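cron nightly-structures :: item 1 of 1
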Amino acid sequence: MRKRKTPNLVTIAILTTITVVFWVFFSVYRVFTDVPSYAVPAEILEPVSPTLDASLIDKIESRIFFSEGEVVTPTSTPEASPAATPTP
């Protein structure tokens, strides 16, 4: 006896149904386990004023300025390599 092969349309329908069931399950699971969004204060959400404050710019310009020669860049310490060195 020869075994009958299921039609391609039936196979696609079964796989689509399984996919939809898993999709719905994981969507419901995500809704119940999702962390609620944070409440942002209204003062943070207010738009920023587009006008420049001249006194604030003057304060920034009057701060201490270091020239490039005055800034010391840190150097890293060399580390020992774990590789073995050949001996003569």
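cron nightly-structures :: done
DSSP finds three helices and no strands in the chain.
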